[in-house]
Amino acid sequence: MVDAPSPPAEGTLALAAELLTAISAIRRIARRAARLAWQDEPLPPAQSELLRLAAARPGLSVADAAHELRLAPNTVSTLVGRLTAAGLLERTRAVSDGRSVRLSVTEAASRRIAGWRDLRAELAARALDQLPSTDRETLAAALPALQRFAAQLEDPPERAAGARRRQH
């Protein structure tokens, strides 16, 4: 039997709330700044997420994309249709059974994703340049901890413990 997870240490809950608020603000402001500077028509967020996922995992199935994005398969099918019509996504039949569809991004989508990523990085670099060097150093030093934090959010101990309990 696995013990119930212990409550967060004193002050950790407040820190977690502040950290998530700051991260949300950075993401929201960066997205807004990039949309204002972006030359192309921006994609709706759900289409952008699917496009990034298909770029990261070429050959992804619609069902896997739906699971990953936590959307209904018919919703993902609709998004696939729109992105295909826009020339950003390709559907190909799976070699294994010929019935299922595999997704991959087009060259135009790859250029679009790279352009968006580069624009966001450039805007963030300009903002970083305006900070004192001590702030830039602090942010750089925090990156490994932030990456570990993200990994913990992805697979929290409670979920891992629950998975272990279900296996026994």
Which keywords apply here?
168 residues; mainly alpha; Arc Repressor Mutant, subunit A; 7 helices; 3 strands; 7% strand
Report the CATH superfamily of the largest domain: Winged helix-like DNA-binding domain superfamily/Winged helix DNA-binding domain
Please tally the β strands and state the result: 3
Distance between the termini: 9 Å
User: Can you write the helix and strand succession as a string?
Assistant: HHEHHEEHHH
CATH class of the largest domain: Mainly Alpha
Helix content: 55-70%
Mean pLDDT metric: 89
Strand order, biggest sheet?
1-3-2
What structural class do the secondary elements suggest? Answer: mainly alpha
What does this protein look like?
This protein is mainly alpha-helical and 168 residues long. It has 2 domains: 23-130, Orthogonal Bundle (Arc Repressor Mutant, subunit A); 133-168, no CATH class. The protein has 7 helices and 3 strands, in the order ααβααββααα. The protein has helices at residues 12-37, 45-56, 62-69, 73-85, 107-129, 133-154, 157-167; strands at 60-61, 89-93, 101-105. The radius of gyration is 20 Å and the shape is globular.
Describe this structure in a few short sentences.
This protein is mostly helical and 168 residues long. The protein is built from 7 helices and 3 strands. The protein has a 3-stranded antiparallel sheet.
